[in-house]
Write a structure and sequence with these properties.
CATH topology: Rossmann fold
CATH architecture: 3-Layer(aba) Sandwich
Number of helices: 9
CATH superfamily: NAD(P)-binding Rossmann-like Domain
Helix content: 25-40%
Strand order of the largest sheet: 3-2-1-4-5-6-7
Shape: globular
Order of helices and strands: EHEHEHHEHEHEHHHE
């Protein structure tokens, strides 16, 4: 089981305060990693406390992921404090729903910034740092995990900005893998199916839409945040050493239907 161990490694995580991001962060801590949490503010200490209860280190850095200026200094702040980042998990995301013909510009801009541009900035800046790290005995320098979506493949309904952003995340993941896989940085993405979290409250509260979604999921249920712990450890560890450029769906069989 050593190939799944994250002992001695440090992961920087966005979107770790709740939902699948929280469970992914906890999973990596359970596997031995220390965690740097990027949050809007320090008021939510729940994930940090859960990680520390596991005997791992947890630190919080604040940044507004909707602000290009705020994100631009994040990685340098973390590195200047002496942290050695082995793993990047980009999980933060927002959702805005409107019919496409009346979708507001400001919602479009915010969704694209948080869900795509910020991911690129963090991949670029942390990727640049990883390229300077001394590779291990297998030539490995780091792991990057982005969170894509089913709408990386499908268009969705009333979510044109989210679909555009998540389609971009999938292609960005492949583009970075093409450049960095030979240099020891594995870049992959996880595409969650329908998950019972706050982001999908509108769907869960729509009886007709919720029932139609459930009817198409071969597993017969919506996902829970805990369903993403194993795949995170896999993509963050040596177990996935020859996996790069993949968009791994965790969807209860939805895409195979």
């Amino acid at each position: 089981m050593d190939i799944f161990s994250l002992t001695g490694r440090t992961a920087l995580v966005t979107g770790g305060t709740r939902g699948i991001g929280q469970q992914m962060a906890i999973a990596m801590a359970e596997a031995g990693a220390d965690i740097i949490l990027v949050q809007r503010n320090t008021s939510n200490q729940d994930t940090r406390q859960k990680i520390e209860d596991l005997g791992r280190k947890a630190m919080i850095y604040t940044a507004d992921l909707a602000s290009r200026e705020s994100v631009s200094t994040l990685v340098s702040d973390v590195l200047n404090d002496g942290h050695d980042i082995d793993i990047l998990l980009n999980c933060a995301g927002i959702q805005r729903r409107h019919p496409s013909h009346i979708f507001p510009d400001n919602d479009w801009d915010e969704v694209l910034q948080v869900n795509l541009s910020t991911i690129f900035t963090l991949c670029r800046d942390i990727g640049a740092y990883m390229l300077t790290r001394t590779p291990d005995s297998s030539g490995h320098r780091g792991n990057i995990i982005n969170i894509a979506s089913l709408v990386s493949f499908q268009g969705g309904l009333t979510v044109p900005a989210y679909a555009a952003a998540k389609g971009g995340v999938a292609q960005l993941t492949k583009a970075l893998s093409n450049e960095w896989a030979a240099k020891g940085i594995n870049v992959n993405a996880i595409a969650p199916g329908y998950v019972a979290t706050d982001m999908n409250t509108a769907l869960l509260q729509d009886p007709e839409r919720s029932a139609s979604i459930l009817a198409r999921i071969p597993a017969g249920r919506w996902a829970t945040p805990e369903d993403f712990k194993g795949v995170t450890i896999f993509l963050a560890s040596r177990a996935s050493g020859y996996v790069s450029g993949e968009i791994l769906t965790v969807d209860g069989g939805w895409m195979g239907r």
